[in-house]
């Protein structure tokens, strides 16, 4: 084996002895990579600027060996070190060249002689690279020639055309020309020609007036032409012109006496224009005449492309000119006095050279071949010239290794001396293209970039053995396994050096060597090939084919085996129709055994499913078919074959029926007026149909779509039809509907109707025609805004009839449908009559919300009502708020007339009787009555006074379960918004809820304190749902209940309380606590335990059931205490953390003090002050509520009893107030600021009252907490801070 191994080494040694001397790796001529971007650059020149003007001429190149740079100016060598470039101002050179590795020049203080064409040359031993030309041009702006005032004065006739000449001076680059009006006081004002068809400038800058108007006589103003050079930022103003209209100025009274002139041509731009492809071309026509001529543009030999061609009044602008724009164009000018004047233009399109194949840099090795292509197109055809290192190719000595083949420059059998720079110039009349590319020559021995190391392959698979090799000239490469050279059909060598081995076998395992050599040397690389057992599918997907209903689950199973050495890498993937299934789809699941589960299947899941097993070396696959029984796929290829004004022929092809026959098709449409709204156009019951006729409206753009239906449902809509169907015009099919009048605006007849949608217009020029007839006279009005559905017509009548018709029309005529005539009325006004003798009906009882009234009926004739009589309104207001009035409608149908009996006089006035309901109870009211028509009310009748008796209250304003335990709730509520009397207290009851069954009501518990706002509800079952009812009461009784649902907690120890605040005084503590929000039960009783620091026994404070604060009194001053809170549910207790740093205020208990400074004396004084304040407040309340409310004597005479009667009650419970409290108790959130409850087994009645000693005079706890608040309100500390 060692003998065989030594043979290749010997061969390599022999090759080494015969190898040529290794040259430099690369011969790289220069390539310019940074050069001037533009072909022309302007400069101001030192005579026109005081700033230090700099111009940079960039030139950077790459190449090897080192590069030198040279510049040409106007084709001659340019020497930056020439003494002529020394600045006269600074005495230093004006031309600076950058570092040696770049040829960039910077010129400063530029002079006129610096103008010229510059070019950079980069050179090294292998060639020369030439940059593009840069033309450096000095900017210039001349001055206008001067004229006398007589030469610049124009005296046109009013209405005559006029031209003001500009004659701009020389400007480099071309200037921007404007016209101005100059006034000595106001300065310059630019003349804006846009939007004024009468005034225009030509391409040379002259100003034209199509006809002179009075405002053109500039009197003291002067017309002037200005040119602006943007490089120099300078403007030059020309001579001024004056316009004096012959005949002088006309006054407004005299008017303008204008002469009229036919259309005449004032200016036409160049008739034959050569436009360069991609550039912009403009044609211009200026016409004179009075009236001002109108101008139209058209293309004689085709149509104008509106996407690129802009038609301005005087100009036709063609943007981004293309070859197809070549042709004849025409401008047409006309006015009322002449026939159209037509002038033609011819556009010929040419183009600058454009690359077809641009030369590219070439890098080749010795003995190889290189080619360069230089193909360009343009109009005229570009001329191609070749250069080598800047010299024309035809001037070089001929060479049999350089030739032209098919417009390509080709070099063969390259040597290192062939390194050079190739230039190509493609030129025509409009420009040139310049390419400067290098030919680099490489020469080096072989190198293996990616050697063979160890490669694994599975049986029957092809494998690539890597040996990527480079070298110049290209090396000869061959392979061996051991000592055997690899040849035959199973071995495929690649130019890169790699070798493909086809259909690997176990016997192919072993060591492989790659050999590479050229005339400069040789190299080799050796590696190993390992062949594994191939992967196989042992259990293909099952079932092989299955049919499932959409929405169901499909399941495939699959298993495979592979080589034992690769089993850890074995994995299975699934493909759907050759594409990996989306594992991010929640309806796709891969099981632990590589099975595939498809959930919620649809027609998209139909197809072939392939199980692919792979170990990274090879793979095996097997497939199965899934068919999903589903609604059809959308129809396709929807198109319109006939688009008539009232009928459309629609065609389509059905999609897949997804294994259930199609039953019918649904056709839908939308239009340009409502593109987002699809409507059904019809149904096609033939399941095999592929076309259908549809009725449409004229002058509408339609698109259609089709939906297929089978037993399982509808398909998705098809794509909409294309192109859009535009139906032809026709007269409207109908007239506006729902014609009506509006009688609310005095002095007008207002007619209204429902507007007709655009799809009903049937053509252009749609309008409504309103015809009004009265007393033999007819007036017609045209409304051309289709969105306007009303017409206001001034009239001098009040509530008088008119005959009105509203019809629809368009440019093709009026709708042929018969019009509808409507009897409309002019506007109403305030009635001329007033109800009188308004009073209570004698003998009718007045309840808390209801009273009967009567009054003298009014004359209801249209003349007196000045409108349509609608009935009456009873108005009431509180005696102390007359501005806020409430009205009760008494329609004429509900009004009862109490006509005079026959025994009365014939002329007795009949009475109208009505009941006023929903009056506010317990209120001192004033009332009157008015007669009403549709929009107006009469003057009010006499007013009367009425005091409604006390009623029942409304619901409490809110209610909430603050905390809950296993057997109790702690409730809180707010006072009712509508008390309707004197509030006397509250009642609370509950019902147990079992599923949908609501149990019997418990015996309500009564609370006689009207200020109470909390209650403890105990004795409940754990984990049970209850409906809790809360009633507010007055002396009249309970009102409507407020109810809420809540659920008790599960049995568990009470939550641990947390101390929030401790406020120490001299002899007492105010302590507050909270319980963290959770679903766990809260204790029914909380109390404070305290002890002096050092004591072992705890003392217990009073039980707290309704609030989460407590007061501990009888303490020693200036003493340290330990405090904790204990929660109990009657069976179990749990204590909070201990607060051990609580110190009472004051001096030590053993200290002696005066009588006045004793703590008990101060506390007693404060308590007395509090009691006096409470007494004053109670007296004030009693005084306010003790006022008597009397019914007027007239009411008593009529038999009314203000204290008697029962009121009507509204039995509806406002759900808006109840809903926030009816969420599931299982998710009940405990407010961490809410108080705790009492014993879970106690009855609610035992804790109906709260110890008054814990409140100050406004009902708040002394020391911290404010009065009764809604659950959302935060507690506000009381102003009081002591407790006796």
Automatic annotation (TrEMBL):
Bias type Basic and acidic residues, positions: 732-741
Pfam families assigned: Bravo_FIGEY, fn3, I-set, Ig_3
Domain Fibronectin type-III: 634-730, 735-829, 834-951, 952-1052, 1053-1148
Regions crossing the membrane: 1158-1181
Transmembrane found in the keyword field: yes
Region (Disordered) residue spans: 715-741, 1197-1284
InterPro entries, sorted: FN3_dom, FN3_sf, Ig-like_dom, Ig-like_dom_sf, Ig-like_fold, Ig_I-set, Ig_sub, Ig_sub2
Membrane association type: Single-pass type I membrane protein
CDD domains: FN3
Gene Ontology annotations of biological process type: cell adhesion
Residues covered by the Ig-like domain: 30-131, 159-241, 262-342, 353-440, 446-530, 540-627
Signal peptide extent: 1-19
Cellular component terms per the entry's GO annotation: plasma membrane
Compartments reported by the entry: Cell membrane; Membrane
Keywords per UniProt: Cell adhesion, Cell membrane, Disulfide bond, Glycoprotein, Immunoglobulin domain, Membrane, Repeat, Signal, Transmembrane, Transmembrane helix
Listed SUPFAM superfamilies: Fibronectin type III, Immunoglobulin
Biased composition (Polar residues): 715-725
Matching Gene3D superfamilies: Immunoglobulins
Record-given protein name: Neuronal cell adhesion molecule
Species of the source: Potamilus streckersoni
